[in-house]
Amino acid sequence: MYVEVCGVGPSSGLPTGGWEHSQVTVERDGRVSATTGASPHGQGNETTFAQMLADQLGIPMEHVRIHHGDTGVVKQGIGTFGSRSQAVGGAALHLAGGRVKAKMAKFAAALLEAHEGDLVFENGMIAVRGAPSSAKSFAEVAGYAYRPVKLPEGLEPGLSEEAFFEPSNNTYPFGCHIAMLEVDRDTGEPRLLKMVAVDDAGHLINPLIVEGQIHGGLAQGIGQAMIEEVAYSDDGQPLTGSFMDYAIPRASDFPRFELESTVTPTPVNPLGAKGVGEAGTIGSTPCIVSAAVDALSGFGVRHVDMMLRPERLWRVIHGANASPHGAHGSPQGGQA
Protein backbone atom coordinates (compact mmCIF):
# COMPACT_ATOMS: atom_id res chain seq x y z
CA MET A 1 0.00 0.00 0.00
CA TYR A 2 1.37 3.41 -0.90
CA VAL A 3 0.69 7.10 -0.49
CA GLU A 4 2.29 9.43 -3.02
CA VAL A 5 3.04 13.15 -2.81
CA CYS A 6 2.60 15.02 -6.10
CA GLY A 7 1.35 18.25 -7.67
CA VAL A 8 3.34 19.95 -4.95
CA GLY A 9 2.17 23.26 -3.54
CA PRO A 10 4.09 25.99 -1.69
CA SER A 11 3.56 24.31 1.68
CA SER A 12 5.86 21.47 0.62
CA GLY A 13 8.91 23.70 0.92
CA LEU A 14 10.32 22.11 -2.26
CA PRO A 15 11.95 24.32 -4.89
CA THR A 16 9.85 22.69 -7.63
CA GLY A 17 6.11 22.83 -8.13
CA GLY A 18 4.31 26.14 -7.74
CA TRP A 19 1.91 27.66 -10.22
CA GLU A 20 0.80 26.90 -13.74
CA HIS A 21 -0.64 29.12 -16.46
CA SER A 22 -3.27 28.76 -19.18
CA GLN A 23 -5.03 30.96 -21.70
CA VAL A 24 -8.35 30.17 -23.39
CA THR A 25 -9.57 32.04 -26.47
CA VAL A 26 -12.84 31.76 -28.40
CA GLU A 27 -11.89 32.65 -31.96
CA ARG A 28 -14.09 34.60 -34.38
CA ASP A 29 -15.42 31.39 -35.93
CA GLY A 30 -16.54 30.07 -32.53
CA ARG A 31 -13.78 27.50 -32.19
CA VAL A 32 -11.62 27.46 -29.07
CA SER A 33 -7.83 27.68 -28.75
CA ALA A 34 -6.10 27.11 -25.44
CA THR A 35 -2.51 27.18 -24.25
CA THR A 36 -0.96 25.31 -21.36
CA GLY A 37 2.43 25.59 -19.71
CA ALA A 38 2.15 21.99 -18.51
CA SER A 39 3.51 20.69 -21.79
CA PRO A 40 2.47 17.08 -22.48
CA HIS A 41 4.96 14.51 -23.74
CA GLY A 42 2.82 11.46 -24.36
CA GLN A 43 0.45 11.31 -21.38
CA GLY A 44 -2.64 12.29 -23.40
CA ASN A 45 -3.10 15.73 -21.82
CA GLU A 46 -4.13 17.26 -25.16
CA THR A 47 -7.12 14.92 -25.17
CA THR A 48 -7.95 15.42 -21.50
CA PHE A 49 -7.66 19.20 -21.68
CA ALA A 50 -9.80 19.35 -24.83
CA GLN A 51 -12.42 17.17 -23.11
CA MET A 52 -12.47 19.49 -20.11
CA LEU A 53 -13.05 22.63 -22.19
CA ALA A 54 -15.60 20.94 -24.44
CA ASP A 55 -17.58 19.85 -21.40
CA GLN A 56 -17.23 23.21 -19.66
CA LEU A 57 -18.32 25.25 -22.70
CA GLY A 58 -20.81 22.79 -24.17
CA ILE A 59 -19.10 22.45 -27.57
CA PRO A 60 -17.85 19.49 -29.64
CA MET A 61 -14.42 18.28 -28.60
CA GLU A 62 -13.13 18.65 -32.17
CA HIS A 63 -13.75 22.41 -31.88
CA VAL A 64 -11.01 22.71 -29.22
CA ARG A 65 -7.30 22.98 -30.01
CA ILE A 66 -4.63 22.75 -27.30
CA HIS A 67 -1.29 24.51 -27.86
CA HIS A 68 1.81 23.61 -25.85
CA GLY A 69 5.57 23.45 -26.02
CA ASP A 70 5.96 26.45 -28.36
CA THR A 71 7.34 29.57 -26.70
CA GLY A 72 6.13 31.59 -29.68
CA VAL A 73 2.54 30.75 -28.72
CA VAL A 74 2.55 29.81 -25.03
CA LYS A 75 3.26 32.83 -22.86
CA GLN A 76 4.61 31.06 -19.81
CA GLY A 77 4.50 27.89 -17.76
CA ILE A 78 6.40 25.65 -15.38
CA GLY A 79 6.18 22.22 -17.04
CA THR A 80 5.29 18.58 -16.66
CA PHE A 81 6.78 16.63 -13.77
CA GLY A 82 5.78 15.23 -10.42
CA SER A 83 2.32 14.12 -11.61
CA ARG A 84 1.17 17.76 -11.69
CA SER A 85 -0.19 18.21 -15.25
CA GLN A 86 -3.85 17.62 -14.44
CA ALA A 87 -3.90 18.76 -10.83
CA VAL A 88 -2.12 22.07 -11.51
CA GLY A 89 -2.12 22.64 -15.28
CA GLY A 90 -5.65 21.33 -15.69
CA ALA A 91 -6.84 23.53 -12.85
CA ALA A 92 -5.38 26.64 -14.53
CA LEU A 93 -7.12 25.65 -17.76
CA HIS A 94 -10.39 25.16 -15.90
CA LEU A 95 -10.17 28.62 -14.35
CA ALA A 96 -9.37 30.33 -17.66
CA GLY A 97 -12.20 28.46 -19.36
CA GLY A 98 -14.63 29.58 -16.65
CA ARG A 99 -13.63 33.20 -17.13
CA VAL A 100 -14.15 33.01 -20.89
CA LYS A 101 -17.52 31.37 -20.38
CA ALA A 102 -18.61 34.11 -17.97
CA LYS A 103 -17.60 36.83 -20.44
CA MET A 104 -19.25 35.03 -23.32
CA ALA A 105 -22.45 34.83 -21.31
CA LYS A 106 -22.47 38.63 -21.05
CA PHE A 107 -22.25 39.03 -24.84
CA ALA A 108 -24.90 36.35 -25.40
CA ALA A 109 -27.23 37.96 -22.84
CA ALA A 110 -26.98 41.25 -24.71
CA LEU A 111 -27.74 39.58 -28.05
CA LEU A 112 -30.62 37.49 -26.68
CA GLU A 113 -31.93 40.22 -24.38
CA ALA A 114 -31.87 37.76 -21.52
CA HIS A 115 -30.31 37.44 -18.09
CA GLU A 116 -26.90 35.73 -17.91
CA GLY A 117 -28.13 33.31 -15.26
CA ASP A 118 -30.84 32.03 -17.62
CA LEU A 119 -28.42 30.94 -20.35
CA VAL A 120 -27.47 27.36 -21.19
CA PHE A 121 -24.26 26.39 -23.06
CA GLU A 122 -25.00 23.22 -25.02
CA ASN A 123 -24.15 21.63 -28.39
CA GLY A 124 -22.23 24.68 -29.58
CA MET A 125 -25.17 26.98 -28.86
CA ILE A 126 -26.04 29.44 -26.12
CA ALA A 127 -29.76 29.34 -25.45
CA VAL A 128 -32.25 30.77 -22.99
CA ARG A 129 -33.26 28.08 -20.50
CA GLY A 130 -36.74 26.83 -21.36
CA ALA A 131 -36.73 28.53 -24.76
CA PRO A 132 -34.37 26.51 -27.00
CA SER A 133 -35.55 28.34 -30.12
CA SER A 134 -34.06 31.50 -28.66
CA ALA A 135 -30.37 30.73 -29.13
CA LYS A 136 -27.15 31.97 -30.68
CA SER A 137 -24.25 29.90 -31.96
CA PHE A 138 -20.74 30.27 -30.61
CA ALA A 139 -19.72 31.83 -33.94
CA GLU A 140 -22.50 34.42 -33.71
CA VAL A 141 -21.61 35.41 -30.15
CA ALA A 142 -17.89 35.47 -30.94
CA GLY A 143 -18.53 37.56 -34.04
CA TYR A 144 -20.41 40.08 -31.92
CA ALA A 145 -17.59 40.14 -29.34
CA TYR A 146 -14.98 40.95 -31.99
CA ARG A 147 -17.12 43.29 -34.14
CA PRO A 148 -16.04 46.95 -34.07
CA VAL A 149 -19.38 48.23 -32.80
CA LYS A 150 -20.47 49.86 -29.57
CA LEU A 151 -20.74 47.20 -26.92
CA PRO A 152 -22.85 47.18 -23.76
CA GLU A 153 -21.38 49.19 -20.92
CA GLY A 154 -18.67 47.39 -18.99
CA LEU A 155 -17.81 44.94 -21.80
CA GLU A 156 -14.47 44.99 -23.58
CA PRO A 157 -14.05 43.43 -27.06
CA GLY A 158 -12.64 39.96 -27.47
CA LEU A 159 -13.02 36.54 -25.86
CA SER A 160 -9.67 35.60 -24.40
CA GLU A 161 -8.89 35.03 -20.74
CA GLU A 162 -5.89 33.68 -18.86
CA ALA A 163 -5.40 32.27 -15.41
CA PHE A 164 -2.68 31.22 -13.03
CA PHE A 165 -3.26 28.46 -10.53
CA GLU A 166 -1.10 27.63 -7.53
CA PRO A 167 -2.32 24.80 -5.28
CA SER A 168 -2.57 25.48 -1.58
CA ASN A 169 -1.09 22.08 -0.80
CA ASN A 170 0.13 18.83 -2.33
CA THR A 171 -2.16 16.11 -3.60
CA TYR A 172 -1.91 12.60 -2.17
CA PRO A 173 -2.84 9.75 -4.52
CA PHE A 174 -2.86 6.36 -2.82
CA GLY A 175 -3.57 2.75 -3.57
CA CYS A 176 -2.99 -0.94 -2.99
CA HIS A 177 -1.19 -3.31 -5.35
CA ILE A 178 -1.25 -7.09 -5.01
CA ALA A 179 1.09 -9.47 -6.86
CA MET A 180 1.07 -13.23 -7.15
CA LEU A 181 4.59 -14.46 -7.92
CA GLU A 182 5.97 -17.95 -8.40
CA VAL A 183 9.65 -18.86 -7.99
CA ASP A 184 11.02 -22.08 -9.48
CA ARG A 185 13.00 -23.79 -6.73
CA ASP A 186 15.40 -25.55 -9.09
CA THR A 187 16.28 -22.59 -11.33
CA GLY A 188 15.34 -19.55 -9.24
CA GLU A 189 13.28 -18.18 -12.15
CA PRO A 190 10.46 -15.89 -11.00
CA ARG A 191 7.15 -15.71 -12.86
CA LEU A 192 4.51 -13.07 -12.29
CA LEU A 193 1.12 -14.80 -12.35
CA LYS A 194 -1.24 -12.01 -11.38
CA MET A 195 -1.13 -8.26 -10.82
CA VAL A 196 -3.99 -6.33 -9.22
CA ALA A 197 -3.85 -2.55 -8.77
CA VAL A 198 -6.40 -0.40 -6.97
CA ASP A 199 -5.50 3.28 -7.18
CA ASP A 200 -7.12 6.54 -6.11
CA ALA A 201 -6.38 9.61 -8.25
CA GLY A 202 -9.43 11.62 -7.21
CA HIS A 203 -11.88 12.65 -9.93
CA LEU A 204 -10.95 11.07 -13.27
CA ILE A 205 -11.35 13.23 -16.37
CA ASN A 206 -10.61 10.38 -18.80
CA PRO A 207 -10.65 6.90 -17.20
CA LEU A 208 -9.16 5.26 -20.31
CA ILE A 209 -6.11 7.54 -20.21
CA VAL A 210 -5.77 6.89 -16.47
CA GLU A 211 -5.73 3.14 -17.13
CA GLY A 212 -3.06 3.68 -19.78
CA GLN A 213 -0.96 5.65 -17.30
CA ILE A 214 -1.27 2.85 -14.73
CA HIS A 215 -0.48 0.17 -17.32
CA GLY A 216 2.70 2.05 -18.24
CA GLY A 217 3.65 2.47 -14.59
CA LEU A 218 3.08 -1.21 -13.87
CA ALA A 219 5.26 -2.18 -16.84
CA GLN A 220 8.02 0.10 -15.58
CA GLY A 221 7.74 -1.13 -11.99
CA ILE A 222 7.72 -4.78 -13.05
CA GLY A 223 10.74 -4.15 -15.24
CA GLN A 224 12.60 -2.56 -12.34
CA ALA A 225 11.74 -5.37 -9.95
CA MET A 226 12.28 -8.36 -12.22
CA ILE A 227 14.21 -7.61 -15.40
CA GLU A 228 16.11 -4.33 -15.66
CA GLU A 229 19.57 -3.91 -14.19
CA VAL A 230 22.65 -1.81 -14.88
CA ALA A 231 25.56 -4.23 -14.61
CA TYR A 232 29.28 -3.47 -14.32
CA SER A 233 32.39 -5.60 -14.59
CA ASP A 234 34.74 -5.96 -11.63
CA ASP A 235 36.84 -3.06 -12.92
CA GLY A 236 33.81 -0.76 -13.32
CA GLN A 237 33.16 -1.18 -17.04
CA PRO A 238 29.43 -0.85 -17.90
CA LEU A 239 28.16 -4.12 -19.37
CA THR A 240 24.66 -2.92 -20.23
CA GLY A 241 25.40 0.17 -22.31
CA SER A 242 22.78 -0.43 -25.02
CA PHE A 243 19.51 -2.24 -25.56
CA MET A 244 21.52 -5.08 -27.06
CA ASP A 245 22.63 -5.86 -23.50
CA TYR A 246 20.14 -4.07 -21.23
CA ALA A 247 17.00 -6.14 -20.74
CA ILE A 248 13.62 -4.44 -20.88
CA PRO A 249 10.25 -6.10 -20.30
CA ARG A 250 8.13 -7.32 -23.19
CA ALA A 251 4.41 -7.99 -23.36
CA SER A 252 5.03 -11.69 -22.75
CA ASP A 253 6.54 -10.83 -19.34
CA PHE A 254 3.25 -9.44 -18.02
CA PRO A 255 0.03 -11.03 -16.88
CA ARG A 256 -3.23 -9.28 -17.75
CA PHE A 257 -3.47 -6.38 -15.32
CA GLU A 258 -6.55 -6.17 -13.15
CA LEU A 259 -7.37 -2.54 -12.33
CA GLU A 260 -9.89 -0.91 -10.04
CA SER A 261 -10.13 2.59 -8.61
CA THR A 262 -11.62 4.46 -5.72
CA VAL A 263 -12.46 8.17 -5.88
CA THR A 264 -11.40 10.49 -3.06
CA PRO A 265 -11.41 14.06 -4.44
CA THR A 266 -8.67 16.40 -3.31
CA PRO A 267 -9.78 19.75 -1.88
CA VAL A 268 -6.72 21.65 -3.12
CA ASN A 269 -7.85 22.21 -6.73
CA PRO A 270 -11.25 22.89 -8.33
CA LEU A 271 -11.20 19.62 -10.28
CA GLY A 272 -10.73 17.31 -7.28
CA ALA A 273 -8.08 15.56 -9.41
CA LYS A 274 -4.82 14.06 -8.20
CA GLY A 275 -1.82 12.83 -10.21
CA VAL A 276 -1.57 9.31 -11.57
CA GLY A 277 1.52 9.26 -13.80
CA GLU A 278 3.74 7.52 -11.25
CA ALA A 279 1.18 5.45 -9.33
CA GLY A 280 1.75 2.20 -11.23
CA THR A 281 5.48 2.09 -10.57
CA ILE A 282 5.26 3.29 -6.96
CA GLY A 283 3.00 0.43 -5.93
CA SER A 284 4.20 -2.42 -8.13
CA THR A 285 7.96 -2.52 -7.48
CA PRO A 286 7.98 -3.14 -3.71
CA CYS A 287 4.85 -5.29 -4.03
CA ILE A 288 6.57 -7.75 -6.39
CA VAL A 289 9.73 -7.97 -4.29
CA SER A 290 7.62 -8.51 -1.17
CA ALA A 291 5.84 -11.36 -2.98
CA ALA A 292 9.21 -12.95 -3.77
CA VAL A 293 10.25 -12.73 -0.12
CA ASP A 294 6.96 -14.30 0.90
CA ALA A 295 7.33 -17.10 -1.67
CA LEU A 296 10.78 -17.93 -0.28
CA SER A 297 9.93 -17.50 3.38
CA GLY A 298 9.82 -21.27 3.80
CA PHE A 299 13.56 -21.28 3.14
CA GLY A 300 14.18 -18.81 5.92
CA VAL A 301 14.42 -15.87 3.50
CA ARG A 302 13.52 -12.48 4.97
CA HIS A 303 15.03 -10.13 2.40
CA VAL A 304 15.83 -10.08 -1.33
CA ASP A 305 17.52 -7.27 -3.24
CA MET A 306 16.22 -6.14 -6.62
CA MET A 307 16.34 -7.08 -9.35
CA LEU A 308 14.95 -10.60 -9.07
CA ARG A 309 17.48 -12.39 -11.25
CA PRO A 310 17.02 -16.17 -11.36
CA GLU A 311 20.67 -16.59 -10.34
CA ARG A 312 20.20 -14.30 -7.33
CA LEU A 313 17.05 -16.08 -6.21
CA TRP A 314 18.70 -19.49 -6.71
CA ARG A 315 21.62 -18.41 -4.52
CA VAL A 316 19.22 -17.03 -1.92
CA ILE A 317 17.32 -20.32 -1.86
CA HIS A 318 20.39 -22.52 -1.63
CA GLY A 319 22.42 -20.20 0.55
CA ALA A 320 19.74 -19.86 3.22
CA ASN A 321 18.64 -22.48 5.73
CA ALA A 322 16.87 -24.40 3.02
CA SER A 323 13.94 -26.60 3.92
CA PRO A 324 13.00 -29.54 1.69
CA HIS A 325 9.80 -27.76 0.57
CA GLY A 326 8.79 -24.31 -0.65
CA ALA A 327 6.82 -21.76 1.28
CA HIS A 328 3.56 -23.57 0.62
CA GLY A 329 4.82 -27.16 0.73
CA SER A 330 5.42 -27.39 -3.02
CA PRO A 331 8.61 -29.19 -4.12
CA GLN A 332 8.69 -26.87 -7.15
CA GLY A 333 9.03 -23.67 -5.15
CA GLY A 334 6.93 -21.11 -3.39
CA GLN A 335 4.07 -18.88 -4.46
CA ALA A 336 2.82 -15.68 -2.85
Describe this structure in words.
By secondary structure, the chain is of the alpha+beta class. It has helices at 45-57, 85-112, 138-146, 207-226, 279-295, 310-319, and strands spanning 2-3, 20-26, 32-36, 64-67, 119-122, 125-128, 131-137, 160-165, 174-183, 190-200, 257-261. The strands form three sheets. It has a four-stranded mixed sheet. It has a four-stranded mixed sheet with strand order 4-3-2-8, covered by helices on one side. Strands 5-6-7 form a three-stranded antiparallel sheet. The two termini are 16 Å apart.
The residue-averaged pLDDT reads: 91
- Count every helix, treating DSSP H or I runs of 4 or more residues as helices: 6
Biggest β-sheet strands, sense, barrel: 4 strands, mixed
Note the overall shape: elongated
The secondary structure category is: alpha+beta
| Biggest sheet, spatial arrangement of strands | 1-9-10-11
Topology record:
Blueprint: E1 2-3, E2 20-26, E3 32-36, H1 45-57, E4 64-67, H2 85-112, E5 119-122, E6 125-128, E7 131-137, H3 138-146, E8 160-165, E9 174-183, E10 190-200, H4 207-226, E11 257-261, H5 279-295, H6 310-319
Helix pairs in contact: 1-2, 2-3, 4-5
